[in-house]
Specification:
Helix content: 40-55%
Oligomer: single chain
CATH class: Alpha Beta
Largest sheet: 4 strands, mixed
Radius of gyration: 14 Å
CATH topology: Sufe protein. Chain: A
Bound molecules: zinc ion
Number of helices: 4
Strand order of the largest sheet: 3-2-1-4
Length: 150
């Protein structure tokens, strides 16, 4: 596949999740919630989650944001649902590496989140891409203060 084809495919994944976000709403009952805000772009992502033991049994998000932040939140909820907290932390680390390091390889276990790798060429967009992840991270940690990307 040429890099132009790949870019087009990635664009389609992002638009699809932006227009039809998965796991949108609130988990009920939730065991943890957190609010995220990215003042640079105006993105809001509120995450609610139900943990059963150390498993993310259910997760949903609400909020209004740009295509990147919404697609990232939607893809993240699909990826982490049913996974353990340790697995989430590992995936978060991988994702952060992919969107911040221009030379980073794309790990298979990130699935369609690879579509967001292009933000590494647009540093101002990195906070859009990682907002939902930081917010879920805070929810899992039991951090009640709203998450704000600096
Ligand atoms: Zn944004």
């Amino acid at each position: 596949m040429s890099s132009d084809d790949l870019r087009e495919l990635y664009q389609e994944v992002i638009l699809d999740h932006y227009k039809r976000p998965r796991n949108r709403g609130k988990v009920s009952p939730a065991t943890a919630v957190s609010e995220g805000y990215n003042p640079l772009c105006g993105d809001r992502v509120d995450v609610s989650v139900r943990l059963e033991g150390d498993i993310v049994a259910d997760i949903a998000f609400e909020g209004v944001g740009c295509a990147i932040s919404t697609a990232s939140a939607s893809l993240m909820t699909e990826l982490v649902k049913g996974k353990s907290i340790d697995e989430f932390h590992r995936l978060f680390q991988e994702f952060r590496t992919v969107v911040t390091q221009p030379e980073a390889a794309l790990p298979d276990d990130l699935g369609d989140l690879a579509a967001l790798a292009g933000v590494r060429e647009h540093p101002v967009r990195i906070k859009c891409a990682t907002l939902a992840w930081h917010t879920l991270n805070a929810a899992i940690a039991g951090d009640k203060a709203p998450v704000q990307t600096e």
